[in-house]
């Protein structure tokens, strides 16, 4: 009778409920009134998906994983949770968080990537925007917009197997952010299902408090089911350049020059690498092609334990004269103080450049290290402390690298909307620092613990030295720490929570608020 009453629950649910030895029958009692067009899955595979993420450090089992047909299903799920005393709901984008942020212990995980609505990627060429489902992958948005319309979003992440809703809940940054701001800055409208179970459209001028709450809101105020993202004409090609520095001051001076002057590259990022022949973290990681080589004998004698490079691109089109492109590149590189003999260049299609991390993923999957834990640390550090950070952290604590890329490049806070929920260090220029650690295949627990401990050491060093910094993808366990993270924006964050998710149903894996009745 119970099963018959939940007529809209899919056949798949019924399949799992009969075959799961777990408390599936009890769970079905929970969901007998849940009336959705999508499916609810209690099976081992679904639960395993809902309880894992890219970080591989945390695992919290949900009761079930829901594949919604669309926003209305998500509204039903949240309303259902509102009627229970304890249920929580976590949107899971592509699970690329590193600290369990998309998990919901004994709650419901919504598999956003599988939402049917994501297939609709609607480009409006006249007004230069695309409407896209919250669970769509940025890589699919790129391919659809470029191949069918010759258009593309303005601001990206380095890796595109991330969902639109997932990055907009954080910020979404890459080498275009100095010009266009993070991805949250090129969104003009959202459709959101709030923690009250209401589906709402919001923008700068309509339900604006919800709009800005959700952008960078760590999933706390609503689930993004659609985003309107601004587009620009996509170039055919990019000139892709890396120039090396031994002196941090020269590196930061040039990076800041490039991000603040009018005429500049289309993409500016910076990396730190180890002054050694390590294939992952050292000299061999710098050249762009197999026919280029890094000759360490040409490095100055003053070079320290770590070196730096700027990564730059310039857009161009197939019909552009190569000599004009060369001239433009030379002009833009003109005043930079990188080391002679250490300029690496190649040409790439625009799409291949934006999808460049796919090759890294393929290789890492092949060697098994894509699936092992990734204790990553991302932070924003004020320009005023970046020299000291380099001296104390990069050249010292991290002088042997992190067995993966270390990124550091400047961003401009004026390109970020301070009405969004993201918090930044003070001042116009701040640096992103990303420690993208990979473990070895079959890592020992001690290896993972050492990496986590080194992250903690870095954070503690920043605190001890009074550096002005914020964690990006923040992860804290206590309210005191969250309060300190948000600083004078904490009250605003709490007010927003009260308004849009008063029972603290959403994104419990962030561990900011506790579910209440
Ligand atoms: P998830 O990890 O699934 O979710 C993240 C959080 O957002 C969770 O709290 C979840 O509940 C919430 N959430 C998910 N979907 C929604 C939604 N639709 N509405 C509301 N809340 C939602 N970030 C950058 O900024 N720049 C980079 O260059 C970059 N490169 C990366 C490269 C790799 C290889 C990886 C693994 C990550 C990278 N990231 C980068 C981090 C990435 O932005 C975050 O992992 C982000 O969380 C997006 O991942 P996701 O879509 O899988 O979201």
UniProtKB/TrEMBL annotation:
Residues 58-234 form the FAD-binding PCMH-type domain. It is an enzyme of class 1 (oxidoreductase). Its cofactor is FAD. Keywords: FAD, Flavoprotein, Oxidoreductase, Signal. Gene3D superfamilies: 3.30.465.10, FAD-linked oxidases, C-terminal domain, Uridine Diphospho-n-acetylenolpyruvylglucosamine Reductase, domain 2. Its EC number is 1.5.99.12. The keyword Flavoprotein applies. It catalyses: N(6)-dimethylallyladenine + A + H2O = 3-methyl-2-butenal + adenine + AH2. It comes from the Eukaryota. It holds the Pfam family Cytokin-bind. The keyword Cell membrane does not apply. Belongs to the oxygen-dependent FAD-linked oxidoreductase family. PANTHER family: CYTOKININ DEHYDROGENASE 7 (PTHR13878:SF112), GULONOLACTONE OXIDASE (PTHR13878). This is cytokinin dehydrogenase. The lineage of its organism: Eukaryota, Viridiplantae, Streptophyta, Embryophyta, Tracheophyta.
């Amino acid at each position: 009778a119970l099963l018959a009453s939940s007529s809209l629950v899919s056949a798949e649910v019924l399949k799992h409920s009969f075959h799961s030895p777990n408390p599936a029958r009890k769970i079905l009692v929970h969901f007998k009134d849940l009336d959705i067009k999508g499916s609810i899955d209690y099976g081992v595979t679904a639960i395993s998906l809902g309880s894992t993420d890219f970080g591989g450090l945390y695992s919290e089992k949900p009761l079930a994983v829901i594949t919604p047909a669309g926003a209305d299903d998500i509204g039903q799920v949240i309303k259902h949770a509102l009627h229970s005393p304890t249920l929580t709901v976590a949107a899971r984008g592509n699970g690329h968080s590193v600290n369990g942020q998309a998990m919901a212990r004994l709650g419901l995980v919504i598999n956003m990537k599988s939402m049917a609505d994501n297939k609709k990627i609607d480009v409006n060429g006249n007004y230069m925007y695309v409407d896209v489902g919250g669970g769509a992958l940025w890589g699919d948005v790129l391919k659809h917009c470029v191949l069918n319309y010759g258009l593309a979003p303005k601001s990206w992440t380095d890796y595109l197997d991330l969902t639109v809703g997932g990055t907009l809940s954080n910020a979404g940054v890459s080498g275009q952010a100095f010009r266009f701001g993070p991805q949250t800055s090129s969104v003009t409208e959202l459709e959101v299902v709030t923690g009250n179970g209401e589906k709402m459209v919001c923008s700068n001028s309509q339900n604006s408090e919800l709009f800005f709450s959700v952008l960078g809101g760590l999933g706390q105020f609503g689930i993004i089911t659609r985003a309107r993202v601004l587009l620009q004409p996509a170039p055919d090609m990019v000139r892709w350049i890396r120039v090396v520095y031994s002196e941090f001051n020269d590196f930061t001076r040039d990076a800041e020059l490039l991000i603040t002057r009018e005429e500049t590259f289309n993409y500016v990022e910076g990396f730190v690498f180890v002054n050694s022949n390590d294939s992952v973290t050292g000299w061999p990681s710098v050249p762009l092609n197999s026919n280029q080589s890094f000759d360490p004998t040409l490095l100055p004698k003053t070079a320290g334990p770590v070196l730096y490079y700027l990564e730059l691109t310039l857009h161009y089109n197939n019909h552009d004269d190569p000599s004009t492109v060369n001239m433009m590149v030379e002009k833009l590189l003109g005043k930079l103080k990188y080391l002679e003999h250490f300029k690496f260049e190649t040409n790439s299609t625009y799409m291949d450049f934006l999808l460049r991390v796919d090759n890294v993923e393929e290789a890492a999957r092949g060697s098994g290290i894509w699936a092992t834990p990734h204790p990553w640390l991302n932070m924003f550090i004020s320009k005023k402390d970046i020299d000291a950070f380099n001296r104390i952290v990069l050249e010292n604590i991290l002088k042997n690298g992190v067995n993966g890329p270390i990124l550091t490049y400047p961003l401009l806070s004026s390109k970020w909307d301070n009405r969004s929920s993201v918090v930044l260090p003070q001042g116009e220029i701040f640096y992103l620092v990303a420690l993208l650690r990979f473990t070895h295949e079959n890592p020992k627990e001690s290896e993972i613990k050492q990496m986590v401990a080194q992250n903690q050491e870095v954070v503690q060093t920043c605190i001890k030295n009074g550096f002005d910094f914020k964690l990006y993808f923040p992860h804290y366990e206590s309210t005191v720490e969250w309060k300190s993270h948000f600083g004078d924006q904490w009250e605003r964050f709490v007010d927003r929570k009260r308004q849009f998710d008063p029972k603290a149903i959403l994104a419990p894996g962030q561990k900011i608020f506790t579910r209440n009745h």
